[in-house]
Design a protein that fits this description.
Elements (H helix, E strand, L loop, with lengths): L4 H6 L7 E6 L2 E5 L5 E9 L2 E10 L4 H16 L4 H8 L8 H12 L5 H19 L14 H13 L3 H5 L6 E2 L4 E4 L10 E4 L2 H14 L20 H8 L11 H12 L4 H7 L18 H20 L13
Helix pairs in contact: 4-5, 6-8, 6-9
């Protein structure tokens, strides 16, 4: 029987991968981790081959079927879909995980036993490359997918707000000229207005997405329309596509990462906590402390963004000018 979205959503992961067949070579492989991968099996020149078709729900059932039909047309025309995909990749192909992995493997072959090399290649081609081979190398900046999602991913580590606060960001709350984002109290867990100073890097990301979504309410609107913000699962799904496991990074993980590193870099605890909106509340001052330590926080946020740029470039990172004043 053909698959349905309901059947896919209701399928629970098992101890081993579960294969859900849709017909004509298309199936969904449900991993024990919960990830759901589209695959298309076909025969070409007498050999059985498998083509990766993306991850559900990023690639919907309808889209997967469309990809299957495109691939079947290629086979009927005497064209191998796998080779066609390789031939039509843009110049960024040299920067994919597969390209880097194969380059690394070619060097290992010369220094390890033949049997070990053969086993390693089988694991690469069977367990790794079909899943993340097409991903670009340099992390978030290499994300291939929705531009709105990519911008949200790029902004998240620069502002380290809660995932719900990020996806509900509205243009009316943001002043790019003042480099400031004011989140109203009714959106905050602590129920008080929160100011997020925007680094030059954060402003640049917002200016890049502005022509696309400035006419809408939300900075990061849902791709399904309806005036809604992006789904709460979008960021985590994008991180999974980049190859990060749940244990390695989540949308909320940007907050804990920033807190840990900023403390290690000797920034004052009370400044970090205020920027994380963790400040202990006082019934009298709660309505007035949203601007607390704002000059220090502006400095910290810009230096934090500069620090991340250095990490991204792979430079040997030294302390970022020392802590801001208490």
């Amino acid at each position: 029987m053909a698959l349905s979205d309901t059947a896919i959503r209701n399928t629970k992961p098992a101890d081993k991968p579960v294969k859900m067949t849709d017909g004509d070579g298309l199936y969904l492989l449900v991993q024990p981790s919960g990830a759901k991968w589209w695959r298309f099996d076909y025969r070409f020149a007498g050999k059985r081959k498998t083509l990766s078709m993306g991850v559900y729900p990023d690639v919907s059932l309808k889209q997967a079927r469309e990809k299957r039909e495109d691939a079947r047309k290629l086979v009927a025309a005497g064209i191998d879909p796998s080779e066609h995909r390789k031939a039509t990749k843009d110049e960024a192909v040299g920067n994919t995980f597969e390209a880097v992995a194969r380059e690394w493997y070619s060097k290992q072959v010369t220094v390890i036993k033949t049997s070990t090399a053969e086993k390693l290649l089988r694991r690469l081609e069977g367990d790794v490359l079909p899943f993340i081979g097409a991903q670009l190398r340099g992390g978030i900046d290499g994300f291939v997918g929705s531009f709105v999602t990519k911008c949200a991913l790029q902004l998240a580590p620069l502002v380290f707000v809660r995932p719900g606060e990020l996806r509900h960001a509205e243009w009316a709350e943001i002043d790019l000229d003042a480099a400031e984002w004011r989140i109203p109290a009714d959106k905050m867990k602590m129920a008080e207005t929160h100011i997020v100073p925007l680094s030059a890097q954060a402003v640049a990301i917002l200016r890049e997405i502005q022509p696309l979504t400035a006419g809408k309410r939300y900075v990061f609107p849902s791709e399904r329309g309806g005036g809604r913000p992006m789904s709460e699962n979008t960021i985590n799904a994008a991180l999974r596509r980049l190859g990060y496991t749940r244990d390695e990074m989540t949308g909320h993980g940007f907050r804990s990462m920033a807190s840990t590193l900023l403390h290690e870099l000797s920034y004052p605890h009370h400044v970090i906590e205020r920027q994380l909106a963790h400040t202990e509340r006082n019934a009298v001052s709660a309505a007035y402390n949203f601007a607390e330590y704002l000059p220090e926080r502006r400095t910290m946020m810009q230096e934090w963004a500069d620090h991340l740029d250095k990490l991204k470039r792979g430079a040997r990172v030294v302390p970022i000018r020392g802590p801001v004043a208490a």
